[in-house]
């Protein structure tokens, strides 16, 4: 299996276990997260780029992978994603570069799925 399948499989499996814990707080947090990324005053593409750039600056590789996958789903181009990741690296500084490497690798892998 590849990077994308491994990530999505693990994420789905663990999210199911988390939901099975029946924690009202966790369910509310997951619901809030889901609702934040629905169409509103900002379109889905803008929201995914915001999520992607924030995730890179915060250096959350799982979040970056998730938002790259969603960026692909909503039709963002490689050029758009790369430009957003460039801004994130500028804001976050050189400490973001290792995460940027993994993001480029994951985006490339997404093009083969």
TrEMBL record:
This protein's UniProt keywords: Oxidoreductase, Peroxidase
GO MF terms, alphabetically ordered: peroxiredoxin activity
Pfam family, one: CMD
The keyword Transferase belongs to this UniProt entry's keyword annotation: no
Domain Carboxymuconolactone decarboxylase-like: 28-105
UniProt-listed InterPro entries: AhpD-like (IPR029032), CMD-like (IPR003779)
Domain of life: Bacteria
Alphabetized Gene3D superfamilies for the sequence: AhpD-like
SUPFAM superfamilies: AhpD-like
Name listed for the protein in its UniProt record: Alkylhydroperoxidase AhpD family core domain-containing protein
Taxonomic source organism: Chryseolinea serpens
């Amino acid at each position: 299996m590849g990077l994308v399948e491994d990530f999505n499989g693990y994420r789905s499996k663990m999210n199911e276990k988390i939901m099975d814990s029946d924690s009202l707080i966790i369910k509310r947090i997951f619901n809030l997260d889901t609702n934040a990324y629905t169409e509103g005053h900002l379109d889905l593409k803008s929201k995914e780029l915001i999520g992607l750039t924030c995730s890179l600056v915060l250096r959350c590789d799982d979040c970056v992978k998730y938002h790259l996958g969603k960026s692909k789903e909503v039709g963002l181009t490689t050029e758009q994603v790369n430009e957003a990741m460039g801004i994130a690296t500028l804001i976050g500084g050189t400490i973001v570069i290792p995460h940027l490497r993994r993001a480029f690798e994951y985006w490339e892998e997404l093009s083969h799925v």
